[in-house]
Amino acid sequence: MSALLAGPLPESLNSAISLIVAFVLGTLIGAERQYRQRTAGLRTNVLVALGAAAFVDLGMRLEGAAGGTRTVAYVISGVGFLGAGVIMKEGMNVRGLNTAATLWCSAAVGAFAGADLPVEALFVTVAVLAGNTLLRPLVNTINRAPIDESATEATYEVQVTTAPEEAGPARDLLVERLEAASYPVGGIEVVERGEDAVEVVATLVATAVEAAELDAVTAALARMPGIRHATWSVQTAD
Could you give the CA distance from residue 222 to residue 110 in angstroms, rounded to a whole number? Predict the structure, then answer.
């Protein structure tokens, strides 16, 4: 930080400036997250940036550039664990990926500030804000565009619901019907759905299928003895 001012600065003052830079830039990122009511908002992003700056600055003061480099490596892995805590899976939907990525970027901003690189920290902050705001219209436009499922890499699952004691026969029947329709099964599992029901879920190997064919397969399965319900679902890759 002393490179921005005339002459060297006392170490304590240099650290204070690094923390102030991290605080201000973390506030800019966090304010946008708070405005959109995300899980990790203003305070979280500020604390991540401050913590990263403090640890990197401490590493540099103790062991110079080598200490700062090692500390950055630990900050990257540590924030990875923190980001994992805000990712939630709800059914087939995953939420919080963008919030976790933003926390990671806040840590990068703090690391730049702690390493006495405030201009670079500002550049990262601008890029993060641009990614979270300016790209939103493009994302919305892409999301509204019709999807050609035959050209999309996706995971297809076929589920049948039956009684626990019928899980084995239902599994065999499900595999048999899918393979007869030329849809080999890549994996199959049995999921408990209460005391009197289980769901047999088959994941298909194919990356694209015909919806009408799977509709026919599930309709035939639903009419079989012991099968309470049959359906299929698709999840496109990220």
Answer: 56
Considering the domain architecture, whether residues 27 and 117 belong to the same structural domain is answered as: yes
What are the tokens at 74?
């630990």
**pLDDT tens-digit readout, 131-147:** 988 888 887 787 676 55
Distance CA 162, CA 173 (A): 12
90/129 same-domain check: yes
Element (H, E) at 209: none
pTM above 0.90, yes or no: no
CA distance 171 to 202: 8
Q: Which residues contact 104 (CB under 8 A, 6 or more apart)?
A: 76, 79, 80, 83
pLDDT tens digit sequence for 13-46: 889 999 999 999 999 999 988 888 887 789 999 9
Residue 129 and residue 40 share a domain: yes
Domain check: are 189 and 216 in the same one? yes
Residue 161 identity:
T
Instruction: List beta partners, residue 136.
Output: none
Pair 107, 188 in one domain: no
Q: Are 209 and 183 in contact (CB under 8 A)?
A: yes
**CA-angle at 57, arms to 126 and 23, nearest 5°:** 40
Distances from the Cα of 216 to the Cα of 32, 150, 210, angstroms: 48, 18, 10
Range of the domain at 18: 2-143
User: Do both 78 and 170 map to the same domain?
Assistant: no
